[in-house]
Amino acid sequence: xxxxxxxxxxxxxxxxxxxxxxxxxxxxxxxxxxxxxxxxxxxxxxxxxxxxxxxxxxxxxxxxxxxxxxxxxxxxxxxxxxxxxxxxxxxxxxxxxxxxxxxxxxxxxxxxxxxxxxxxxxxxxxxxxxxxxxxxxxxxxxxxxxxxxxxxxxxxxxxxxxxxxxxxxxxxxxxxxxxxxxxxxxxxxxxxxxxxxxxxxxxxxxxxxxxxxxxxxxxxxxxxxxxxxxxxxxxxxxxxxxxxxxxxxxxxxxxxxxxxxxxxxxxxxxxxxxxxxxxxxxxxxxxxxxxxxxxxxxxxxxxxxxxxxxxxxxxxxxxxxxxxxxxxxxxxxxxxxxxxxxxxxx
Length: 346
Description:
Low-confidence stretches: none
Shape: elongated
Distance between the termini: 61 Å
Largest sheet: 7 strands, mixed
Number of helices: 13
Mean pLDDT: 95
Radius of gyration: 24 Å
Helix content: 40-55%
Structural class: alpha+beta
């Protein structure tokens, strides 16, 4: 199948099957960038609600830049991967300092937390730049269509799939019809179509091969190896950590501190935590609320024990702890694990 034939087939499929997402009704680079950051490692169903809340709270990049980090982290709470939120906030201030949203691939890549995929997505969707946005959906579609078994998480694999995607997007027409029936930039629609095709048709498990418009041209389907592609090398070792949280309650107040850098949940707030250290002397009157509560991160499994200390005297704590009314705890951005412990066991 030629690149031009591939693009024509893909865009016809997208015109009939593309998802109607709110950020696809605008070319505002801020709104598009915000959606791309939120949707990294987040499902569409969950991410859409967060995108709408962010746009309502901070409708412009200037408004987001003027927010505090605590406000941004609190709004982000529940999405995980909090470095995305911190990078988003930093990049918003970069954009304000520039005086406008950058328009070229090279300038967009300089924003904090923006990689090749996000830069290409913003550049194509907002400014019509012909640049392929290569993500997991694209790896999956192309590896199956051409039966490519080069691992996608190797330098060779990334270069190979990027070259192939770039070849295809340059064959896209200048304009094409969107799912809403509007005429739009072909490169922009190509990227959106590849995202949707991988997410809804050529899915990781049980893809709809019999209804696929490429079924007669798909080399993986012909060889019966669809479920073996794409290939990804396993490199990361999963580690397990055991956490002990003590929720201290004293006359309606509780003690929390902000986590430092260099570890998970940087900048978020939490109750006193003990990990690989003995419990303090003042912990003699603890009430066990839960044990072995499991929380899974990308490369870590966390097992948490949760205790309550209900006391009339504030125990000695390091200087970085602050006492806040329990009624105000919800105003602080906390890790999802802490939120779950407090909501479930208190």
